[in-house]
Amino acid sequence: MASHIKEFLGAEKPGDYYSALVEQLKKANGEYHAFNQIDGSVADANNAVPFSSKANICVKGFETTAGSKMLQGYVPPFNATVIERMLGDDRFTFIGETGMDEFGFGTFGTNTEVPAKNAFDSGYAAGGSSSGAAVATALLKYHVALSESTGGSISTPAALNGVVGFTPTYGSVSRYGLIDYASSLDKIGVMARSGEDIRIVFDAVRGRDDYDTTCAVQDIRDEKKKKLFVIEELNQYSDKRIHSHFERLLDTLGEKYEIATKSIGVLGSAVESYYIIAMAEASTNLAKYNGYKYGLQHIEPNARYNEFFTEARANFGVEAKRRIILGTFIRSESVKSRYYTKALSVRSMIIKEMGKVLKEGFIISPTLPVTTPRVSDVKKLTPVQEYAMDIFTVPPSLGGFPHITFPYQYTDGMPIGAQLVGGQANDYAVIDFATEWESEFDYKYKHNIGSL
Amino acid sequence: MDEQEFDRLLKVARLKLSESEKKTIKRDIDEVIRYFDKIAGVAAGDDPSYQPIRVPTRFREDRVIPFKDVELLKKGSKLREGYIIGPKL
Amino acid sequence: MKIGLEVHVALPTKSKLFCSCSMDDAEPNTNICPICTGFPGSKPMLNSAAAESGFSIANALHCKINRNMSFVRKVYFYPDLPKCYQITQMGGAVGSEGYLDIQGKRIGIRRVQIEEDPAQIVRDGMLTLLDFNRSGTPLVEIVTEPDITDEGELRSFIANLRSILYYLGVDINREIKADLNISISDVRVEVKNVTGIKSLIEAARYEIARQHRVLEEGKAIAKETRGYNEKRRITESLREKETDEEYGYVYEPDLTVFDISGMKPAEPVYANEIAEQLAEDSDVNAKTIREMTMLDRHALELIVRFRPKYKMRSIIHAIQRFKKYGKAEVPPPQVIEKLIRLVEDGKEVTKETVASFEEGKDVSIEYAKLGAVQLDKLIKRFLDENPRMVAEYKKRSKTINLIIGRIAKENGLHPKEVAGRVTRLLAGY
Predict the structure, then answer these.
(1) Distance CA A88, CA A75 (A)
(2) Which of C47, C129, C246 sits opposite B83 (nearest CB)?
(3) Residues C151 and C56 in one domain
(4) Which A residues 243-272 touch B at CB under 8 Å?
(5) Are residue C97 and residue C169 in the same domain, yes or no?
(6) Alpha carbon distance C315, C305 (integer Å)
């Protein structure tokens, strides 16, 4: 599949293209809730591909809430670095902000006031936390989405909405202007309808930034691999259906790649480690939301600050509260070494062990261990059951390894995705794997808003 | 986790829960902590990684660059004579 | 009695610790940006000058330097703290296990850490008014061991610390903010947020006396946190706002490990020790030299420069006179040298002489010129008339300067001219 960006920029478009686009999108959005806000001014654009940004990426002058009531009314006084770079690139024009689980806390996109709906069937979960970005990509023919993942927030919704979702090496794209979930795990990435488009956007936004110390990966490699590894410790978690679909995918890929099974024992503890680190950091990142200065304005002039803060912070959603409490617990002096320090050490092992394997080849897995669940089924999951759904997306997240999700199968009208992981800084090879896949497999979409 | 510890955490985190919220969240949290406890058995050595990548030392040069939109920073605040009004001490 | 200190010192940088906002005084909330106001999405970038300054202070306090320093988040909720966590240092602090020698005693330095200052709170009736200009000011916190045992040592420690910091370009006189830990029994009382050296000493004095009084009354000292009331000059119990606070430190994931091995710390100056050395074999005691030099690098430079040529007393006197009458901030060495000569010749240094020297008018001193025979005669007569001075000289050779001074002064002679012959002739007595 060729680049939609190139195709669009080279095509003749009717004079009212953008205004018609906005109108159609608004209509569709009424049903799918992909966007929190659509930027009406895109109607004045001139031959540029619309890009959206996840609602935790600051856009100057545009309400940016990270899906939280705590940030209602927050209009950032500055652009995130990635936004600055996209706005400065005349191939792109801003179209709006996409919905998400509050602060990125969710696997299925349900932890926010108005959840996005799956673009293939609105009764199904859209996936999270970048639910809106995935749904928007599945709705719009010519569009790219700036998205963000901490532990799978790009892969999961991309897989459930049948789009390509790329999470780059940690530190290759600036996080300046990203509303933090867990700073040592957060990565801004891209969703699109093709690998080639992803590569274009990745190149447009990545690279050193004087406003983010951790944005340190400058040289991106393109080391193609001949081997694909399936990880024993992870694969056992797939349910039967996913297992058989994935086996078929391996059969197909086996024609070009050498497929082998590897054991990385420490990955059995990946999910716990991930959530421990993520919650410890999140509970500090969320300390700043207190009902004054920005976002929600808590009015209670007679309350002293402790009471004031406590009242204001009652506006966090349930999952946010859960994670703040757990994060606060994990950071307690009496248990810190048992959980936090231990999890950081497990991460070191994962970086080392996976890094070794990724020198030899790529790691391939299903994106999720289950097929797309119905929204009603998601609501029945306990937090631990929901966290366990991240079994495949968490290992590369902990290790900062680049990974890409792509659709490889449609069953009962719903797409199914697989995920490929590469070594740190080998992002181009990871993206190109999807591009290669697309040359033999056609992606299907239910919507093609804005097609020419 | 006992009631007392749970309430202490709420106080430290400046969170308030309704009785029903408290019941479900407390139950969830106990379950999650049991899940986290599995990590205790992992032999991981003592080599914490604070970032997934090696971040090289990088400083900012000591140079003044004024922020251009100072007024926008105060838009969400109540002001008095240029001061931002905060919660009572 | 044990006293431990946590001293907060603002570092002399142009911009803030983690952002490029100016450190200059300004109207409230004008030197601010998304970073120092803790806006969502902002990230810290460490100021190299602050790191260097912190390194220099740790080095001057003989600390072990952490060449891979790192930061943590200290989480607590207070209206002046923009992110509700403070970026500070713990195990990864720039310096640890150092010391500072005060007269005759070594005070341990537990840690030197770099951290950010919160916003300033101005109370207006019931209102809390916040000025974020101060937020993000680079600070160094110096934590001592509880090695100070009385008020005198406390004064001396502060004076020495102030001098060391002064020579590193940091003036703490007014800005100093400190927490004191005072225990005269085995109960530790913390006195928080004392501002200024004067208040610090007063707070310590009050608190020591208070604890003694409590014990004398047969009561127990409560383990508590107190504040210092500057107006009433007393310490008072603070409401126990922080009993449930648990800082829950985590590594600061927005920053990294900073390798400072490429940095060079500023050369420390221990004016206190230099004064001791200068006082040896001189006619001035160490205390006088210390008082003049501990917070005056120009005075120290002048003393060191002229010490080989002139008498210490003359140098000190000349500098004192210049400080009193001179116009220039930095005394020009040429002017000082002329003043020293004037002093050595026993002439009085007046406002007018300083002024005319500063204006460049060379008021040359007319010395009487004598032949060698005449000079020897004169000296002999003086020595004969003053047997006690000669006897004194036999005991302490240093007193020769007094003899030379008197002869030169009484006869309007250049001391140098007199000096050579006096030494020679004294040998015959």
Answers:
(1) 20
(2) C129
(3) yes
(4) 266, 269, 272
(5) yes
(6) 10
Give catalytic status of residue A129 as yes or no.
yes
Q: Is A440 exposed, middle or buried (0-12, 13-18, 19+ CB in 10 A)?
A: exposed
**Could you tell me if A450 and A45 are in contact, meaning their C-beta atoms sit under 8 angstroms apart?**
no
DSSP state of C366: -
Question: Do A295 and A356 belong together in one domain?
Answer: no
Q: How confident is the model at residue C205 (pLDDT cuts 50, 70, 90)?
A: very high
Calpha distance C289→A428 (Å, rounded): 69
Q: Residue C318: what pLDDT?
A: 94
pLDDT in tens, C23-60: 999 999 999 999 999 999 999 999 999 999 999 999 99
Burial of B18 by CB count in 10 Å (0-12 exposed, 13-18 middle, 19+ buried)?
A: exposed
Tell me the pTM.
Answer: 0.91
* Predicted pLDDT at C361: 67
- A319 shares its domain with A192: no
Count: domains in chain A: 2
Q: What tens digit of pLDDT does each residue of A62-98 get?
A: 999 999 999 999 999 999 999 999 999 999 999 999 9
CATH number of the domain encompassing residue A177: 3.90.1300.10
Residues C129, C23: one domain? yes
Identity of residue C122: V
Interface test with C, best of A81, A103, A211 (most C CBs within 10 A): A211
- ipTM of the complex as predicted: 0.97
Which residue pairs, CB below 8 angstroms and at least 24 apart, start in C376-385?
C376/C421, C376/C425, C378/C407, C378/C411, C379/C407, C379/C418, C379/C421, C379/C422, C379/C425, C380/C425, C382/C406, C382/C407, C382/C410, C383/C425, C383/C426, C383/C429
Q: CB neighbours of C102 closer than 8 A, spacing ≥ 6?
A: C153, C156, C157, C159, C160, C272
Q: Are residues C400 and C346 both part of a single domain?
A: no
φ and ψ of A426, to 5 deg? -95, 40
- Domain termination site, one of A312, A346, A380: A346
Q: Are residues A282 and A159 in the same domain?
A: no
Peptide bond into C22 cis (omega under 30): no
A332 and A339 Cβ atoms separated by less than 8 Å: no
Share of chain C above pLDDT 90, in %: 66
Name every chain C residue with its beta carbon within 8 A of the beta carbon of A216: 256
Residues C55 and C117 in one domain: yes
Residues C106 and C254 in one domain: yes
pLDDT confidence of residue C398: 83
- Say whether both A77 and A146 belong to one domain: yes
Which one from A68, A153, A283, A397 is the annotated catalytic residue?
A153
Containing domain of residue C280, as a range?
271-358
The beta strands (E) that lie in A246-323 are given as: 258-262
Of A290, A312, A346, the residue that ends a domain is A346
Give the pLDDT band (50/70/90) at residue C359.
confident
pLDDT > 60? residue C354: yes
Q: Looking at the structure, tell me whether residues A342 and A357 fall in a common domain.
A: no
Same domain for C404 and C314? no
Do residues A434 and A189 touch, judged by C-beta distance below 8 A? no
Asked if A275's CB is within 8 angstroms of B32's CB, the reply is yes
| Whether C328 and C398 share a structural domain | no
Which of A7 and C360 is assigned the larger pLDDT? A7
Which residue of C15, C21, C39 to mutate against A (max A Cβ within 10 Å)? C39
Between A352-356, B14-18, B39-43, C156-160, the lowest mean confidence (pLDDT) is in B39-43
Q: Which residues of C381-410 are buried (b: 16+ CB within 10 A; e: fewer)?
A: ebbeebeebeebbeeeeebbbebbbebbee
Is residue A68 part of the annotated active site? The answer reads: no
Chain B nearest-CA distance from A53, in A, is 21
Q: Which domain holds residue A321?
A: 267-346
Count other C-beta atoms under 10 Å from residue C143's C-beta: 18
Per-residue confidence (pLDDT) for residue C244, from 0 to 100: 56
